[in-house]
Amino acid sequence: MTTFTRISDSETPSIDVNPLRRLSKINPNIYGGFTEHMGRCIYGGIYDPGSPLSDENGFRKDVLEALRDLRVPVVRYPGGNFVATYHWLDGVGPKENRPARPELAWLGTETNEFGTDEFLKWCEVLGTEPYFALNFGTGTLDEALGWVEYCNSSSDTYYAKLRRKNGREKPYNVKYWALGNEMWGPWQVGQMSKEEYANKAFQWAKALKLLDPSIELILCGETGYSSWDSYVLKECLTWNTHSLSPTVPLISMHSIHVYTASSEHLPNVTAPLSAERAIQIAASLIDLARIENRIPPEIPRQMICFDEWNVWDPVRAPGEKGAEELYTLSDALAVAVWLNVFVRESRYVGMANVAQSVNVISPLMTTAEGLVKQTTWWPLWLFCRFMHGWTIGVHVRCGEYQGVTEPPWIRSTVETPWLDVSATVDKDHMVNLAVVNMSEASGSEVDLGHVRKGPVEVYTVTGKDVKVVNIQGREEVKLEESVWDGTGKYTFPRQSLTVLRWKA
Q: Within 13 A of 130's CA, how many CA atoms are on the CB side?
C-alpha cells in the first residue's frame, strides 16, 4: 500500500519507505502468464516443430529459456475467447487422428496438433503450474468433468484410463480451473446473462468439487466494478449447500479483466490506475457477498484472479489479425504501473496473468532467427526477479498529473502522482523500491527515507523519448545497472522505471 500527499511541483518530493511495516504477503502467482490459441502464441510461439530452435517436443527452446528467466509461476490455457468453442477431446490422442475445427473466436482453423498433453508437458519442461479454463460456451458439464478426471484422477475410470492409453501414467494434478471466460461479453459464443451464468457456474462448481475437492475454481467476473461482478459473487459465494467440508470454499477466486491503452503518453501511463480501483471495488464486493451470505471466517477469503491484463489497443492490433503490438517506452512504463498496482494490492490479488506470454500482445516476439524482447519485457523482468516477499508501507509526497485520463473516470476517483511507487521486503531482508517517473519533462530529485547508507543496487529502464520501440537488431529500451551510495537525494530520470535495492 502506498499513501500520497500532493505538493506543488516546485517543492522537493519525498518517498518514505518503512521495511518494518509489512502489510501483506505477495503471492508469486501475480507474475503469471497466459497462452491462448490465438495468432502466433501457440503455433509459431511456444510450439514450432521443424524449427532449428525447437527441441524434440517441438517447443521453442529460446522461449522456454526466456520464460524461465522470468520465473513464470503459472500459465493460463487454452483461452481466452478461444475456449468457448474448444473441446479438449479433439486435442488428445494420436495427432493424425485429431480433427481440424473452425475456430470462431479469432476466425481461424484449429488443427488440434497442440492440446492438453502437449501443454502440460510444456509446463513440466518450463517448470510452471498450469491453469485451465473450461468451455462455458459450447461445452457441457460432462465434458468438463471428463477433463478434470483425465488430468487429475488416479482411479480406474474411463478418462483416467484414456490418459494412460495416451502415454501418461500418473495424474497431472491441475490445480486451477476457471468457470468460463468473459461469458458476459457480446463477442462471446454462448454469451449469458448474469443470472444464467451464476446458476450454471454454481451447479458446475458443486459437481467439479465433488469429483476433485483439491481443485481451486475461479469464477468468471467482468471488470470488478460491474453489476455482473456484484451479482455472481452474491449468488456463488455460498458455503452450506455443496456437500463438502464446512471449511472448503466452493469458489477460490474471482477473475476480472482490464486492458488499457492511449495514444497519448500521460493518459496511457496513468490508465492502469483504473485497475487498482477495480481491485478495490471487487474486493469490497467479495466482502459484501461473504457478509450477506454469512460465510464463516473459517472459510478462506476469496481472492481476485486478474487473469487478463496488459496494454492493448484492439484497433491498433486486432485480435483476428494476431494482435501483435509494437510496444513503446510509454507502454513499458504503463506495464510498470500495472505491476506496481498488483504489488500495492497484494492483500487482495491471488493471481494475475499478463496477456499474453508470446507474440500476441506480448513482451516476447519470436522470429525465424530468435527472439525480440519488446520494451515491456524489462519492467516485467524486474518485477518477476525482485518484487517478492511482503508489500511494505510507503508514503509519497510529490506533484500530481492533473490532465486528461483514460478512462475519464480516473480523474474523479483515483490519485495520479507523477511518481508511481510500490515497495517490498523479501525473505533475505532486501528492500525493493519500484518508482515510475511518468513525466516526460524532467527528472525528479527525491528525498528518500529509511534508505541505509552503503551500496544500493540501481536498475533503470528508460529511453530517449516515450515513442521509442525495440525491434530486431535495434534495442532502444533496455536495462541499465549501477550502484548508488545511499547518501543525499536520488534523481529518478524522466520517463523511467527505477528499482532500488538495499539491505534493511
A: 27
Question: How many angstroms separate the CA atoms of 212 and 209, rounded?
Answer: 5
Residues paired with residue 497 on neighbouring β-strands, in sequence order: 436, 461
Q: For the whole prediction, is pTM greater than 0.70?
A: yes
Pairwise CA distance, residues 122 & 119, whole Å: 5
Beta-bridge partners for 424: 391, 432
> What residues contact 55, with CB distance under 8 A and at least 6 apart?
61, 64, 125
Whole-angstrom distance, CA of residue 89 vs CA of residue 86? 9
Supply the residues annotated as catalytic.
182, 308
Residue 112: count of CB within 10 angstroms of its CB? 22
H or E stretch at 287? helix 273-292
Beta strand spans in 329-406 (E): 349-354, 364-366, 371-373, 390-398
* Strand order through the sheet with 33-34: 33-34, 74-77, 129-133, 176-178, 216-220, 253-260, 303-311, 349-354
Tell me how far apart the alpha carbons of residues 59 and 55 are, in angstroms, rounded to a whole number.
5
- Give the tens place of pLDDT for each residue, 250-283: 999 999 999 999 999 999 999 999 999 999 999 9
DSSP character string of 8-59:
-TTSPPEEEEEEEEEEEEPPGGGGBEE--SSTTSTBTTTB-TT-TTB-TTSB
C-beta separation of 269 from 337 below 8 A: yes
Angle 352-353-355 from CA coordinates, rounded to 5°:
145
Whole-angstrom Cα distance, residue 223 to residue 275? 8
**Cβ 371 vs Cβ 62: under 8 Å:** yes
- Per residue in 44-100, pLDDT (tens digit) is 999 999 999 999 999 999 999 999 999 999 999 999 999 999 999 999 999 999 999
